[in-house]
Design goal:
By secondary structure, the chain is mainly alpha-helical. The chain has one domain (2-130). The protein is built from seven helices and no strands. The chain has helices at 2-29, 35-38, 43-60, 62-69, 73-81, 83-95, 103-130. Helix 1 packs antiparallel against helix 3 and helix 1 runs parallel beside helix 6. The radius of gyration is 18 Å and the shape is elongated. The chain starts with a helix and ends in a 13-residue tail after the last helix.
């Protein structure tokens, strides 16, 4: 069971890195993705799938990865990997606004900012809520 949990953390890290790579390709190089070769102007459709799959996996995988990553380097790396896509979007929005030359790129940047911030802070909230070491669950009632 521990081998499965480590692979969930590894996949979570891989998804965060993949989203960061996609963001760099999209914002800095203007790449529209695989569908951009066949269908033009499908940015909203691509973003809907990318953000849905990314956020759903990142938040749903937390309980499965918690046991294996407790007190280990992979858990820290998993949490830090969520910072990578958030930092890229923050740099684009606040430091490289010339890359956001169309309303579609602005909306993509704002959506990715919200999704990556939700992943980062939602992940920490879920970890705190699921951690029995931080809170006395089932102990003496608080007066």
């Amino acid at each position: 069971m521990q081998r499965f949990n480590l692979s969930v953390s590894g996949l979570s890290i891989a998804l965060a890195v993949a989203l960061a790579v996609w963001e760099v390709l999209f914002f800095f190089f203007g790449w529209q993705g695989f569908l951009g070769w066949f269908i033009s102007n499908e940015l909203g459709f691509q973003l809907a799938w990318i953000t849905a799959v990314y956020l759903a996996f990142q938040l749903v995988s937390i309980p499965f990865a918690m046991r294996a990553s407790r007190g280990r380097f992979i858990g820290v790396l998993d949490g830090m990997a969520s910072l990578l896509p958030l930092l890229i979007v923050v740099v684009v929005i606040f430091g490289r606004t010339h890359l956001l030359d169309t309303p579609g790129r602005w909306s993509a940047a704002l959506l990715l900012l919200l999704v990556t911030a939700t992943d980062l802070f939602g992940g920490y909230v879920f970890n705190i809520a699921l951690s029995k070491r931080m809170f006395d669950v089932g102990g003496t009632p608080m007066a």
